[in-house]
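ARCHIVE RECORD
Type: protein–small molecule complex
Small molecule: NDP
Source of inputs: curated submission
Record status: active
Notes field left blank by submitter.
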Amino acid sequence: MIKIQNFINGKFENPISDEWIDNYCPSDGEVYGQIPNSSKQDVENAYNAAIEAFPSWSKSTLEARSRILIKISELLETNLLRFAEAESKNNGKPISLAKAIDIPRAASNFRFFGNAITQFASESHESIGQNAINYTLRQPIGVVGCISPWNLPLYLFTWKIAPAIAAGNCVVAKPSEVTPMTAYLLGDILKEAGLPKGVLNIVHGLGSTAGQAIIEHPNIKAISFTGGTSTGAHIAKVAAPMFKKLSLELGGKNPNIIFADCDYDDMLETTVRSSFANQGQICLCGSRIFVEASIYERFKIDFIGKVKQLKIGHPSESSTDIGALVSKPHLEKVLSYIDIAKDEGGKILCGGNRVTLKDYENGYYLEPTVIEVKTNDCSVNQEEIFGPVVTIMPFETEDDVLEMANKVKYGLSATIWTNNLKRTMRMSNKLQAGIVWINTWMLRDLRTPFGGIKVSGVGREGGFEALRFFTESKNVCIKY
Ligand code: NDP
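STRUCTURE (tokenized, with ligand):
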């Protein structure tokens, strides 16, 4: 059985309490590892290591930091298969996805921010007529906290850590208790890349104890969090009176809006992906599909035909399209929404059942599920399910669909399928979302601002936005 350890001050360590939590393998439901049940004291040790490393790290040259980040990136690429296998096993995602997306993107995060920091400039303002010049210093904050979820474990963990350390901060980070494995493996790579001890400290454990100790630590000055909206609200409540800087990337209930004039085949193929990639456990998945009435029946037949072809299988098999959901409680939550949909008059067009795979009977498999709903007001159109479940319904006019798309508390992303340029401009102006994709989905450029509005989050990460978040700006005014 694998025993995961914390990574504090450049060393692997057991939790002080010597208490451990079982870690499950979603594909067979068996315990296959144990992780530290870290306490406030472990977080304190991580903080102490970080604050000790800060004076030297924050003064290191940009070139030196950049070199280390790029080295981490290269080592992740060299170890791609090992990391992809660990991610797939720990999360239940198909190995093909971990190999093509999760681990390459984790490597890109380090490379991108290793380069970005060397290009991060600040402004100066000449105060004409007052004989003065103002310039802005962008200084690292100090010790920052990074807390990430289970759906894209290393991908999202590194999305925070890389800009934080690139900007000169030292970090206390906590990956999800459900998927700690790749964050644990990262420790070896950090050592090999020569990251000075204490710059990045990884504490494993429960959100309610280890996570809580990070967010309420008086000297951890900023928190970058990705996770559920209710956890985000809790973090804001704790952190706001302490005046911490906060970046919250939260849940989504994203509309996928399909007009009759779209490139149909492209739309169909991408919609299967935007509905069910990673078992639908991506905050950006288009879980509410709205289809223009004139092509609704055709879409329904074609979409369901394609969804039925998806192969549900063991995550380690290269032919698997749909792996296991991340945990038993999560599987139960998703199944409960399918029951709610039925109670509220939704029609299950395909899927809806747990799947028992031969030899892996206790794995958390679920059929990709398409529900036809009559109204946008139903629970399955209003609440985040975060599983392989999408709803479909027709619409008549652009105004109607815009109203339905926006009538939800979330505002993370939206997709529009159309070849009408004026419509894309009108709609992307009016859609309440942090990201709008036109005729594509999840096409990411790491320079762009990333984040949501409404209950999908506060603040933006990505590109220079992340470097701005992880620095404090200071104006210096010189009179001459
Ligand atoms: P959670 O909010 O349950 O957990 C996220 C992280 O927060 C975990 O590491 C968790 O630890 C930790 N945590 C829980 N309670 C606390 C606390 N009191 N103090 C500090 N940390 C705490 O989210 P999930 O892991 O279930 O992830 C799924 C959610 O993430 C979905 O809502 C999804 O939409 C959202 N998400 C948003 C994205 C975005 O960019 N907007 C991207 C990806 C996901 P532990 O695991 O131990 O509970």
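CURATOR ANNOTATION: The longest strand covers residues 132-140.
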